[in-house]
Amino acid sequence: MGDQLTAEELRKRRLARLATPPVEAASAVSAESPTVAESGTLPDPSAPATGPPDSTIHTAPSTSNVHASKKDIDDLSTVVSAATARKSSTDATGMELDEPTNHGVGHAGSHHAASKKGGPAGLSVESCKRQKSLQSAELTHVAGVHGFDATTAPPPKRSTPDGDADAMEVDEPTFDTAKTAITAASGIQSRSRTFVPCSSIVCAAQTSSVTPMASSVASVGKAAAMAENEAVLNRIFLADMVEATQHHLAAIAKQVSGTADLVQMVIAEYLARYGGLKNGQISNAIPLRSVSSTSSMAASTSPSSLAVDALTEPSSPIVYLAACYQRSFTEEKEFPRRSSESPIKELLAESRTLCLAYSRLILSGAIRLGRPSESRDDQEAAASDSSDLHALHEEFFHLMLKERFPPNFVVDLILGCSEQALSRIFNPVIKMLHIGMAGASYARPEHREYLKLLRELCSVKSALSNVRPFCELFVRNEAFLPRDVLASPYAGLELLHRTLLGPFLSLSLFAQDDTEVVSAFFGQKHPSSADGSILLRRNSQAEVGVLQDMMQLSRQLSCEIVYAILVNPSSRAEMLAWLVAVVKANEKRSQLRLDDMAVATDGFMINLVFVMQQLSLKVRVDKVDPYYLFHPASQLGEHQYNISKDACVRMTEQELTEFRAELEADRSWQQKETKFITECMFLSVYVHHLSIVPCVQRYVRRSRYIRELQRAVHELESTESLWKIVPQLAAQNGASLTKWRSQLNKLNISKQSADVVLFDRVLVLRCLDFYDNLAQLLLHILGTPVSQTSNISSEIPPISKLFSALPAWFIEDMADFILFVIQYKPRVIGEQNTTALVHLLVLLVCAPYFVSNPYLTAKLIEVMFLVSPAIQKFTEKLYLQIRTNPIAEQHLAVSLMKFYTDIETTGASSEFYDKFTIRYHISIIFKSLWENQNHRGQLIEESINGNQFVRFINMLMNDTTFLLDESLQSLKRIHELQEAMKDQEAWNAQPREAQQSRAAQLATDERQCRSYLTLARESVDMLHNLSQHIKEPFTRPELADRLAAMLNFNLQQLCGPKCKNLKVKNGDKYGWDPRRLLNQLVDIYLHLDCEKFEQAIANDERSYRPELFDDAVSRISKAMLKSEAQIRQFEGLAARVQQVLRERHELDLSDAPDEFRDPLMDTIMEDPVLLPSGHVIDRATIVRHLLNSATDPFNRQPLQEDMLTPATELKAEIDAWKARKYQTAKSSGSVLYNEADSPASAQTPDNDGSTPGPSSRL
After folding, report:
1. What value does the CA radius of gyration of the chain take, rounded to a whole number of Å?
2. 0.90 exceeded by pTM
3. Pairwise CA distance, residues 584 & 53, whole Å
4. DSSP state of 1198
5. Structural domains of the chain, count
6. Does residue 764 sit in the same domain as residue 688?
7. How many CB atoms lie within 10 A of CB 111?
8. Taking the chain, what is the end-to-end CA distance rounded to the nearest angstrom?
């Protein structure tokens, strides 16, 4: 290579020169080439330079010092010091300036520092004054045209910590990385960006006063200071250029009047050459100093072009300006002490101001880029201008997206813009953000870049006024909420795509929302499938955690975006309007049947609910206006709150109308202003109603359908050997099996994706926290605010009109979500404080009259059922909260007992089957409460003092009778089919269709038997527990006969001659335990062993036989179910019943008059009563009827027990007739006389008003 230096050697030399102190570098004279002072002439720019050997070697560091001769430095020293001095000076007109005068964006004031001989450009001092004035006026005009403020205040002084350069860590990128970045159209070191709002940025540069150039050589100290200024400028603005030779810098020093001129000329020349600045735009858009034809500046080569000629590789104008902006901060970091003092401090601030000003001019189109051909017409030129500006905006957008701009560059750029300029620069950015985010997916990582960029732009605010300019621009954009969106029948879905915020909340991991996430996270292609079908891929817990963390990050960014818009006062109203529009457009999501194309996706709504949870996290319910839904200014009440669509908690339509009228009469309340926290709270309630609840309900339905499909596939696979040999069935069933397996695979993929979203721990805990907050609001409305368990009162408050008028789904949504969590995520619910939620739950169950819909109360009872220890072991904390609640200890057991009877009729078509499920839940709760002494005492007390207990026992007996009967019938059918299948020869002789039909019937019977036995077991358990401690209600005439008949019938089924028909294979599979059932039935007999119950057993003519008790004794003795004492007691009961029957047989009452007989049962009446309809009937018969139906059995008119009138005269006649019969039997000795059966004893009624005595069933 001869005498040329290698790139590495050149790099080392430059680094060594950069390490030279500025004073030494300024006083040093290069020995490698003659100076301008020595030669006396400017060298030819085209001549070979004696500095760097090869300008194509890309080793220019970002802080390059350019050496000059001493004379050049002296001449430039006066110019630079005058241009950057911040001291008060006097301009050409004699005005004293305490602060620099601003003359527009991007221009520092082109003042000609004329020498005594007229200045370097050959202009007189007067010419310089006129030129300065013209330029100032022109710049002010241009700034106004392009939307920039020409009178912006100068920037505040930037505080920089002192310290030596050696002590500071220099974070300067190497030239290799810088060159790579420039080639990639970035040119800026990539680093994490934090937009910290700063003060308003000055958009005008400092105006320097006209100072005569010194005619003599400056002192060495002054030359050193000038060298420092010159080195700073070169490090900032010439870092992308190869080091200029000394004669280049000398030419600049001689022909430039000030620092600001030098900076502007370098930038302008850069734009003209490498930014594509169009002809004529320099003088029009940037009012530089006019150059006379006689001036040396009119030469073909300008001073700035001499420097720009040395560029190794041109970069984007925005990249270049941002790099200069960053290097000004690098200068402060490397030389903190020197940079904090004048004039370097002002010079750095001036440099940043000019970089930002030119960036705004370029991005707003004030400086048009491109080199259009002169042959093109105006239309083509305009199209070219638009295309060039669009390309520039795209570059600007991608640089922001990739975080290539230095910290605070975009922040200062935004805060320094006028409203018009901000719109021109950032509206294209908003559009590109919207387009980019519309195609984003969790399957690709770039979605985070879009969210972060929008978050950071919305976070930019002024430190003085807290105004967020970008937020204002964002909500004023026409696409933020197009007016015609809500009018569309598909408004819910269009909000996702046509509004600006929609795509940013549309990221979803639900399989039905984004097909890309299916193949990326939840599925894999079938290796042998030609149609590209996807198989389910099981994710590990760690993989699920990664996906949930990814969701949390994007949701948090979305929340910060919405929060930034809401906290900005000028954009809050538009943001609230957008949220209300989402609620209105998606109201159909609460329906069971909906069109997915008309509403927003599940992913969008779940993201939105996360945002609303964050916003309402710290809302205090005592600050919320509970009447907001009825307020005239409510944005939700007029649309959503409609009694025809949303039923009230308790009010009817007429009551609601009257309540509204009362509120409208209060003028002061109507004029009350609604607060943001109130709107935020109720918006959150509605968003939860339309998001999390429908998603939960869809998940439950999908899970149920998966189970049914799995059962169908299993049944078809288990019978494959039967239908495979039949060609027609083989083809049909084979196609069905393939179809069902494919559906099952898709459903499992959807379920797994929903598992990731809905079982997210953070989401579940936040929903529980929100619903607990909502429960506090409802309790506050009821007048019983709850904060801690110790503050809970045991008194049930009076019902509030406002509470009665609220939508019933306020309560139902809470119940649905708690049920979902308990069933699928039970461990989580115990970790959250749900004091208010539990108290509201207990209050509404203990006071069911608060709610008009019985199914809503049943759902609250189901919550208690699921948290009971018998069902769920992970919810012990929640169960203890319910059991120890003061209201529960006083009222829960009695309220459950009352609801057990009230649910008999609900008005629904499925009420018959619904009641069994609800009563099963109550039975389980009773079993848990029975173990607690307080709750057991409440039940016993109610059985003694309240008539409600009798109705409860009646319903319990009805259910037990029905369920045991259905269970035993199912067992018989199962036994029959199993026996038929044992005979393989006879079974195979049947047609295939018959075999399949009977096999299907067997599966149906097994499911029914399992359900019935489950319900029957709990009913029998309850009867067993109650009869052990409470006897009197069971022995009442209206109950005793029916209870004894039920016990006798089931004892016959278990111990009678046909008991073998109940023997089935794998009885445990159905919950069938005959020994346990027999043991409980015998216990109930023993619990109720008394004379009245003996009479009731004897009254049963359908099932009772003396041999029945003998068989029962034999079986319990053989199975050792009872002790000897209990067996002897049971035998004694059987003997006493037999004695009653013998006495009745000897006593002939068959000739009783018809008026003595009960019209319904045809038995001799013991206590006749007169009905309002005029009919006479036995009290026991009519009371038993009223327990089931409160109507007159003869005309179906309403009838209550207190409407019965005792027929005392008829009763006296019956008693007298029976006394004569007994007397006759006694005298003949045919029966053993019993004082309890005598007419005298019959005259004394029992405690319940009935008169016991023997009766004959004819």
Report:
1. 47
2. no
3. 72
4. B
5. 5
6. no
7. 27
8. 134
φ and ψ at residue 752, rounded to 5 degrees: -65, -40
Residue 270's identity, in one-letter code, is Y
Looking at 693, 717, 750, which one is the last position of a domain? 693
Alpha-carbon span 1079 to 1050, nearest angstrom:
12
Q: In angstroms, rounded to a whole number, what is the distance separating the alpha carbons of residues 1139 and 1120? A: 28
- What's the longest Cα–Cα distance across the chain? 165
Same domain, 336 and 375: yes
* Residue 1080 one-letter amino acid: Q
DSSP state of 857: H
Nearest Cα residue to 610 out of 567, 559, 561, 576: 559
Retrieve residue 833's tokens.
């404080």
Which tokens sit at 4? 């040329």
863-896 confidence digits (pLDDT tens): 999 999 888 888 888 999 999 999 999 999 999 9
List, in order, residues 6 or more apart from 424 with CB less than 8 Å away: 147, 363, 364, 365
Is the link from the previous residue into 343 a cis peptide, with omega within 30 of 0?
A: yes
- C-alpha angle 18/22/25, rounded to 5°? 75
User: For residues 157 and 112, is the Cβ–Cβ distance under 8 A?
Assistant: no
Average pLDDT value for residue range 775-781: 93
Angle between helices 1091-1099 and 1037-1055 (to 10 degrees): 60
Amino acid at residue number 378: D
Domain span at 1010: 947-1083+1098-1129
Same-domain check for residues 595 and 628: yes
Tell me, yes or no, whether 347 and 303 share the same domain.
yes
Q: What are phi and psi of 702, to 5 degrees?
A: -65, -45
Residue 1158 CA to residue 1150 CA, distance in Å, equals: 13
Residue 704 lies in a domain: no
Same domain, 845 and 933: yes
b/e map of 1187-1200 (b: 16 or more CB within 10 Å)? beeeebbeeeeebe
Determine contact, residues 246/73, Cβ cutoff 8 Å.
no
Task: Examine the domain organization and report whether 248 and 357 are in the same domain.
Answer: yes
Indicate whether 791 pLDDT > 70: no
The secondary structure of residue 518, as a DSSP letter, is I
Check: CB of residue 436 under 8 Å from CB of residue 504. Answer: no
Q: Which two tokens stand for residue 837?
A: 């939620």
Q: What is residue 106's DSSP assignment? A: T
Tell me how far apart the alpha carbons of residues 295 and 317 are, in angstroms, rounded to a whole number: 29
Do 331 and 458 belong together in one domain?
no
Residue 1184 and residue 1199 in one domain? yes
Phi/psi of residue 524, nearest 5 degrees: -145, 145
Question: Is the dihedral angle over the CA atoms 440, 443, 449, 455 positive or is it negative?
Answer: positive
Strands 523-525 and 1176-1178: unpaired
Per residue in 231-257, pLDDT tens? 777 677 765 543 443 444 445 444 444
Sign of CA dihedral 743, 748, 754, 759: positive
